[in-house]
Amino acid sequence: MSDDPDKSGLTQVVGSLVGDTGGERRKLLFLAFFFAAFLYLLYQLLRILSPFVPALLGAVMLVLIFYPVHKRIAARVSRSSVAAAITSMVVVVTIVVPVFVFLWLLVSEATDVAPAVSDWLGKHSDTSGTLASQLPEPIQRLWSKVSPHVQIWQADLKGIAVDALKEIGNSLTSFGVATLKKAVVVLLDLMVLVLAVYFFFRDGHRIVHWIADLVPMEEEYKWRIIGRLDRTMSAIIRGAFVTASAQGALTGMGLAVAGVPFPVFLGFASALLAVVPFVGASLVWIPAAAYLLIEGQTLACIGLVLWGMFVVGLVDNFLRPYIVGGQAGLPILLLFLGILGGIRVYGLVGALISPLLIALVLAFVDIYREQYMPRQSST
Description:
The protein is an all-alpha fold. The protein has helices at 5-49, 53-76, 80-110, 113-124, 137-146, 157-181, 183-213, 219-258, 263-273, 282-294, 298-328, 332-346, 350-378.
């Protein structure tokens, strides 16, 4: 046994280092195992819940829309479960039941679209030639004067228009048949939506606080960011709802006045497509205008095009940015460009992601200015 104090001290230091290294390795191994297992379990949970994601997202949207109503009811009712039940009943009576009945009527009307399109195609299938031969006589005379100078009128645009209308009719019919076949799934999703609305109203605050506790940031900044995201999400939902409703109603009115068949069904389809900014409703009224032109109803076609461009289109291009930008406090120009760029980068979901990203960036900019700009100005 050595009496060298230096050697004994060195042995203790090496032993402590080896022990610490072993402890750190065990800690890293535990962390790796923990996060791997956690991510795997989270992935499996998301797979289980994935069939109900549309219903859950719909519930979130309805809760955000009706949350002011819930706050008023909760102020008069002491028990949160009773207040949530009352607000959920209000949502069901005012939104869910009317929309469900309306969808059922639309599906029944959609079953008549295919025969009507087939009859219309049969009436026009025996005719051939270019679109110029199908135009009214005054426009044909005008074209006969212009055509010698333009050499691009050789394509059979009528055939293209007919094929497009046929595809639209088949799509609408497929939607109706698929909806009828999936009636049980629709009812299950409706039940999940109603239950989710109730629990989100009752436990929404606890869910938000639980998520906020997981964010490693100062409390003031966490709740500022959450508040801004909440305002932005509410503005997006209200903007989409108001814009889609207005565009659907205006498109249906224009189609009815122009004499296009199935104006109610096509108006609802335009409302659904209106969630796609800038181009949604035009996917309905442009083929309808082509139908009117092929039918020889020139004035109705021109009127529908003008109505779609300067009434329906302006509602989307101006009303949506003003609603979202005004309520969320976002610059309208930045929001306009962000929505266009978001759709180009992320697809249709970019219309939802881009305003949230803009809100997050502006929130972080505000935090940066508060944290660092005063220090710079004071030096």
